Amino acid sequence: MSAVAFEIHDMTVAYQRRPVLWDIDFTVPEGNLVGIVGPNGAGKSTLIKAALGLVPLASGKVEIHGKSYDEQRHLVGYVPQRESVDWDFPVTVRDVVLMGTYGRLGWFRRPGKAEKEIANRCLEQVGMAAFAKRQIRQLSGGQQQRVFLARALAQDAQLYFLDEPFAGVDAATEAAIFELLQTLRSGGKTVLVVHHDLQTVRDYFDYVVLLNMRLVACGPVDSTFTTENLQQTYGGRLTILDEAAEAMRQRDV
Amino acid sequence: MGGLSLTEKVMIGTALLGGMSGVVGSFAVLRGRSLVGDMLAHAALPGICLAFMLLQTKSLLGLSLGALASGLVAIAAVTLIVRWTRTKEDAAIGIVLSTFFGLGVVVLSVIQRSGGGGSKSGLDSYLFGDPGNMLTGDLVLLAIVGGLVLLMVVLLFKEFKIVCFDNEFAQSQGWPTLRLDLLMMASLAVVTIVGLPIVGVILMTAMIILPAATARFWTNRLHHMLWLAGAFGVAAGFLGTRVGQGLPAGAKIVLTAAAFFVVSLLFAPERGIVAQLLVEYRLRKRIAREHLLRALYELSETTLPNLEPLAVQSIRDYRHWRSLDHLLQEASERGEIVQSGDTVELTPLGLRRAAKLTKAHRLWEMYMVRHVGIAADHVDRGADDVEHLLPEALLIELEQKLASEGRLPHVIEDVPSSPHHLDTDASPRQGGG
Question: Buried-most residue among A62, A167, A188, B302 (CB within 10 A)?
């Protein structure tokens, strides 16, 4: 059994006294692609933000490779939702990717030649090398997403958190992201991805976390991504349930 | 420094103020905090008046401390209102700003009624600004604040940049985003307050916003924007005090800054209104041209590979045109068609371009309808970049689908008299073209 990359213990998160995540408790072994799946408002993004220390925990703790996040920050890469920033900000594509190296640089030091080479390499990896000098406003949605991925790659992490990277991207970007996930896994990295498309869960991930304010199930896709678990996760939301059933049926034939 | 004449002091002082307002204003504007400067300026008035009542002096430092104190109270008030009630931030800022300003006006009139005329004139300058009585000490204070702002921005450029662009990502890397934010706010507050006696409570916010907003028109890089905003601020301060003798200086400075803004708004490359209208005009022209070529292709499609002259009237009836005659004339100037009397014929060059456009269009249509689920009549994107946006495997699939429906335009790479394009009739089984 491989080492534990990420562990959450009895975590509860509340926004203004209203809990959004209850008693979450799971571990993720190293070197897996993990899908975090659940209906809207299930707390998927909150789970990631809590793990990264962006929202305070009401209780519980988070461990990354056995230690607290504060100690292991340098091992973690983060891809926030694309809509979370102003894409008219006066920076170029490479400027954004360089931000991935800021954590290592520390106070006052500016990115130099070495960092720029890292940024160029990461842009190449996501197929955006030709765009390095573009202003970010001129990018399509899929290109923006790839820039964010390149920034996370520049963090050179062991554990990555991706918040809805597949949302609203073109087919080419979807394929590129999927390929990148494979590369990361074969490099021994662990990647947790907030995902909303049930149809592709089996194709993309080998581990799944089913979430609806509480943890419904967590484990390898084959044994965990089952109709019963999905019904529990999406219970009561009929349209999505149908979709889930459809996804299962397609797999069974 | 004592050797400077009053005019020189005023010019240097306002230029300094303009420069630092531009720099701190850039961060405020990019962080979506431009109104905070406005609030600080207005909320400073009661602090200034109370400080005057307590200290009985008009020294810039004493009054500035008063201004800072009431500015901080105002920020705290906004934070509390937003945190504990359902009031939105902009509404809260508006409430606090006007309440503090009203309070300031009341206290000011009390001072004016009780005190002598001499003390009154000094405080009045805080309302509309009056750099005319700038002392050497004031100039030194401005220089020190300016130097500190510059030093801070040089040291913390990278940190401010990441916090302004993506606060949460910065936090995930361990940057103390709250403290960096507070530092940006504090520098905004200090610059606002030292600027109050020069441009006044009401106009100070313009000094914060205008140079930064002007600079944004001219560049897409943050460090260039900071330099430019500083330069626009300096120029506004410098020129504003020189033009129009006898008019209120604060207003002149702000109007100069506004003039820079209006010129940039109109004429900046790329982001200026004129440039944008030009882009739109070119786009419309391109779309009209593509519509024409596609219409010609579709009208000729039945007789291909033979090209027959088309009646202009049939083209006119084919779809809605804004100025068909003009379009046809332009097309024949490009050598895409030959026009003779009432008929039009595609040239080999025109046919090739038309086929290419039609193919891209149909691929788009097919993709949208089959893979994205948009109603067919909403699909009309003149995008040649379909090949770059879709993965190759999907393109081939779409092309095969079009071919099986007999709707795949054959893009002729050679001259059309070549036997090549007879293939269209022979076999509809082509893959990647």
Answer: A62
Q: Using alpha carbons, list the distances in angstroms from residue B15 to A91, B6, B9, B196, B413.
A: 28, 14, 10, 14, 63
Which residues does chain A have within 8 Å of residue B224's beta carbon, measured at their own beta carbons? Answer: 90
Q: Is A172 on the interface with B (CB under 8 A)?
A: yes
All residue ranges of chain A with pLDDT < 50 are 238, 253
Query: Residue B30 and residue A103: Cβ atoms within 8 Å?
Result: no
Given this model, what pLDDT does residue B372 score? 61
> Residue A77's domain is classified under what CATH number?
3.40.50.300
- Residue B231: pLDDT band (50, 70, 90) is very high
Share of chain B above pLDDT 70, in %: 86
- What CA–CA distance (Å, rounded) separates B251 from B253? 5
Residue A150 lies in a domain: no
- Residue B157: CB atoms within 10 A of its CB come to 15
Considering chain B, tell me which residue range(s) the CATH 1.10.3470.10 domain(s) occupy.
6-271
CATH 1.10.10.10 region(s) of chain B?
279-426
**Whether CATH 3.65.10.20 fits B6-271:** no
pTM, whole model, 2 decimals?
A: 0.83
Determine contact, residues B22/B260, Cβ cutoff 8 Å.
no
ipTM of the complex: 0.91
Q: How far apart are CA A132 and CA A154, in angstroms?
A: 14
Kindly list the residues from chain B whose CB atom is less than 8 angstroms away from the CB atom of residue A102: 158-159, 162, 170, 173, 175
CATH classification number, B279-426, choose in 3.60.150.10, 3.30.70.20, 1.10.3720.10, 1.10.10.10: 1.10.10.10
The verdict on a CB contact (< 8 Å) between A175 and B173 is no
Query: Is it the case that residue B42 has pLDDT exceeding 60?
Result: yes
More confident residue, B347 or A35: A35
- State whether residue A130 sits within 8 Å of chain B by CB: no
Number of domains in chain A: 1
Is cis: bond before B305, omega within 30 of 0?
yes
Tokens representing B63 are: 């009054």
Report, in angstroms and rounded to the nearest whole number, the Rg of chain B calculated over CA atoms: 33
Distances (CA, A) of B75 to A179, B65, B89, B90, B104: 48, 15, 11, 12, 16
Residue A224 lies in a domain: yes
Taking the Cβ of residue A73 and every Cβ of chain B, the question of whether any pair is shorter than 8 Å is answered with yes
Range of the domain at A67: 4-83+158-252
Let me know if residue A91 belongs to a domain. Answer: no
Q: Nearest CA to B328 among B292, B291, B284?
A: B292
Best CA proximity match to A92, nearest among B220, B194, B58:
B220
- For residue B53, how many other CB atoms are within 10 A of its CB? 14
Task: Name the strand (E) or helix (H) holding A191.
Answer: strand A190-195
Answer whether B34's CB lies under 8 Å from B28's CB. yes
Q: Does residue A186 form part of some domain?
A: yes
